[in-house]
Amino acid sequence: MSKKKAQGTNLLYQLIGEARGYDDVIIMGRGDPDFDTPPHIVAAAKEAMIKNHADYTPPEGLLALREAIAERVKRVNDIDVDPASEVVVTNGGQEALFLMVLAVIAPGDELIVPEPNYNTYADSLAFAGGRKVEVQTYAESDFRADPAEVRAAISDRTRALLLVSPNNPAASVISPADMREMLDIAIERDLMVIADDIYDLFVYDDYEHVSPASLPGGKERTLTLNALSKAYSMTGWRLGWIVGPADIMARVKELKAAISGGTSVISQHAGIAALTGPQDAVEMMAEAYRRRRRLVLDALDAMGMKYGLPQGGQFVFADIGFTGMDSGEVAQRILSEQHVLAYPGSAFSKDRKDYLRMTFLQPEDQLIEGLERMKVAMAKIVAER
Amino acid sequence: MASQIKAEILTDHAANAALNTPLPPAIGRNAKDLSADGLLSPLDERIIAAASEALEAGQTHYVDVPGIAPLREAIAESVNAASGATYAAGNIIVTAGAQESRFLTIQKIGETFDNIAVPAVAHPGAQKALGVRARQVVSLPVDATRGYLPAVDAIAKAVDAGARLLYLESPSRLTGAAYSSEEIAAIGQILRESGASAICDQGLGVWVDGGVASLAAMEDAPAQITTIGEAYPGMGLASWFIGYIAAPEEHIPAMQSQKQIMAICTSTAAQFAALEASGLFAEAQASKIAQLKRLKREILASAASLNLDAIAGDALNLVALRAADVADKLRGVGFDVADGGAFGAPAVIRLNVNAATADAIKALS
After folding, report:
1. Contact list, B48 vs chain A (CB under 8 Å)
2. Contact status of B29 with chain A (Cβ, < 8 Å)
3. pTM of the model
4. B55 to each of B60, B94, B343, how far by Cα in Å?
5. Would you say residue A4 has pLDDT above 60?
C-alpha cells in the first residue's frame, strides 16, 4: 500500500512501522503503557505453567477468572453480573469490541457513534455491514457528546448507541447526568447500548465515570467491555472481557467460539492474579499518568496549542489547525524529521484533520523531549507556509 | 417493557444454525474427555523457562500484528519441512489458534471469491466461521468409503461448476483420513488448470506417520494454496491458542488488517512459548507418533473384537467409529466423545487417542 493512500488503521500501522526504524524515537502515539506488567502477575503466569495449568478452558473463559471479573465490575462499575452466564473472556479489549459490534449489528443497521472515536469501531462496523451515524463533538466543549444530538441522529434503522467513556481519542468523560439521559434515550427508542469502559480507572480532577449498565434499566440492554491492557500494563497478554445480559451473552459466546475458540489459558491465570492480587501497581501507574497529563498540558499551554481538556484516558487530543496542514502530513513530518510518533486525528475521523492524539505513556523526561521536538517540527511547518 | 430490538437480535441468532454449531474443545477436560483432537501433554520445562524469561524481560507489550519475526520464520520452516512448501516468513500470520486461522481465511480470502466450496463433512469451526457473516457456500459431497473426504471427482465437478475457492481438510478433522499423494496430485492438477485456490487445514498432518501429501507442495502453490493449523501441537500449548496461516502474499495484507481489527496481535507469552517449542517439536513428534501408533493399534483391535465399525484414518491421534448409538453409553460411564453430527456425519463418533481410549472401548463390551 502506498503511503499516500493509507487511511485510518492502516495509516497508524504505517507510522508505527516507520517509527520502529528510528533508534531515538519517542512514542507518543500507540496506547501501550511504558510500564511492564507488575511482577506478581508475571509470577502467577509462571506458576500456572509450572503447575501445568495449561489445561482446558471453555470459549467463555475459566470460571475463576469470570468470577474475578464479576467481582471487579461490581466493585468498580457497580454492575451486577452472573459469572456463569453473563461474562465472556476475550483476546483483549479489541476482540471484545469486535464481538460486541457483531453481536448487535446486522447488515444495514445503524450505530450512533459520538465522533471522534476509536477507529476500530468503524472497521468492525464495516465488517458487520452496519452503518456509522456520527454525532460530532467539539474541543470547545471538551468533546462532550450532546444527548439532544444523539436523539436527533436516531432513525428507524438505528440499533445501538456507542458510549465510550473516557473517550478515545478525545479523552472526554460522559457525565452522570448525560449518561442517564443517553440511557433514557436508549430505553425510550428501544436501542441497545455498546459501552467501552477500558479507561474507567483513568479519570482526572473531579470528573466521574459511570457505566450505563449500572443505571436502572441499563443492564438488560447494555454490553460493556473492559480489558487488563491499560490498567495493568498487559497489552501483550491479550485479555479482556464483555459483560451483559445472559440472553445476548449467549450470542456473544457463540461468536467468540466462531472467531477464536478461546483465550490463552496462561493469560487467564495472569488475569486472575491481576484482578484478585494487590492493586498498588495500578495506583502507582494512575498517579504517574496524572503527573504526566499535567506536564503535557502545561507544555501545550506554553506552546499556545488548544485542546479539549482530557477528563480521562491516557492521551490528549490537540488542535494543530494553526499549521494549516492535514494531521496525517503533520504526524508524518514530526516522525520523519524529529522521530516523534503521534497519531493523526484523521486516522480516527475524517473530520479531525486538524488534530493530533498524543499519549502520555512515556517517562516524564521522554515526554518533555518529545514535546520539544514536536515544537521544532511544527515551527518549521508554520514557517514554510 | 420487553425490548423489540433485543428480541430481533435473539431471533436472528436462533436462526443462525451455522453459528450455533457446537464446537469440540481444542483439548480435553481430562483423560476421559475424548472429544478433542488435541493431545493432553505436559509443558516441557524448557518452554516454561523460555516463556517466563520473555515475560520477565518485559515482553508484555503489543507485538507485530502478524507475529514476532523469529516465530514466523520458524513456522515457515516447519510448514515447509512437513509439506514441501516454499513459504517465507512474510507468508505467515501467527494466530490465536486454529479457529482464528479458519475464521480469518474463510472470511477474508473468502470475500475475494463469489463462493466457497466446503466439504459436507468438516470441522464444525468451518461452519461457525461461515455463520459469523453469511457467504455463499457450495457443499462438496464426501465419500464415506474414503473417510468422509470429498472425492477428487466431486472436487472436479465443483470447480467445473464455477467454484474457485475450496476449503479442504487433510487429514479430516473427523476421521483422520488424508489424501494420498496421487489424490493430491490430481487435486493439484484441477487447481492448476482452473486457477482455483484452496484453504487447506492440515493441522492433524503432524500425527500421520511419515507425513501427509500437501497441496502446498505443488508448483504453483505460492499463489494458490493457503495452509492453516495449530502451531506445534502436542507440546502442551493447545489451551494457549496459538496457530498459523501460511498464505500467498496477495492475501496477507487483508488478513493482517483483519487480525489487527479483531485482536491487534497474538499473546506474546504464547508466541515465545511456541518459538521455544519449534526447536523441540521434531524430537517430541517422533516419540509421540510411536506412542500413538501403539495406542491406536490396541484401540482398533478392541473395536474389531466388538465388531465396531472403525473408519480407517491416517492421523494417529483420533479414532472414528460408525457407531453413534454408543455415544450415550460411553457418556454414561464417564467418557465424552465428539459427535459426528456437528461435523456433518451423524452416524459417526470421534474419540481422541490417549491412554484411556482403550478403556472406553472395553467399556462397550
Report:
1. 46, 49-50
2. yes
3. 0.96
4. 6, 18, 39
5. no
